[in-house]
User: Fold this.
Amino acid sequence: MVGKLPAPMKPWRDNVREPAWRRTGKTPDYRFSLANERTFLAWIRTSLALLAGAVAVDQLAPNIAPTPVRLVLCVLLALVGAGLAALSYRRWGQMEAAMRNDRALPFSRVMLVMTIVVAVAAFAFAVLILVAR
Amino acid sequence: MSVEARDPGLQPERTTLAWRRTLISLVVVDLFIWRSWLTSEPAAGNVVPGVPGLDYQGLCALMAAAATVVLAAVVWVRSRQLQVGSHAASARLVLVSTLAVMGLGGTAIAAIALGG
Assistant:
């Protein structure tokens, strides 16, 4: 621990191909790195929940709306889920890059957009459930 | 290198558990995709001749299984890393898990489109 290695993460072979931003600044405290990793995973789970919701509505509630409407709604929900997975990777990188260079953590509109998407989807399905019966 | 003797936040443990929760969430999506295959009418034309049941829905079920295997491998590797020391995840591990989830998203869209 005395002679500090310049390469922060020696032990693993798979950091040979790290993105360029990983070699900038200084390696953050492991607690912040791991918290960032868990935040990434929380977003990934949100994305998985949207996917599960999309497939579940399609299969378990076939009469919720006419087939084309139901298909479009479910495919849209699944698309948002897949896109959110990509966004969570990007956000993970942005967060760590900011920590490495002692910048403020980037503000992201993803949270606002996701709030609106989930609220609109919930409202739409609530209306459909009411209309379907 | 080594974890500090006193880690009030139990950081590696929480991170390992977060990875496992993520794997469990992925299996939930799997179950719906597999159900979609099992409840679908067997298609007349198989994608691969000679393999019964492997229509396009069957292919979706296989893709979902593949995504699960990939994420399970990442979780296994990451859990082992976290047992040794609390280093940040390599970008490749994070990217591979993202791609597995995105692949599962594509599979889910295909399963929805086929099921309609």
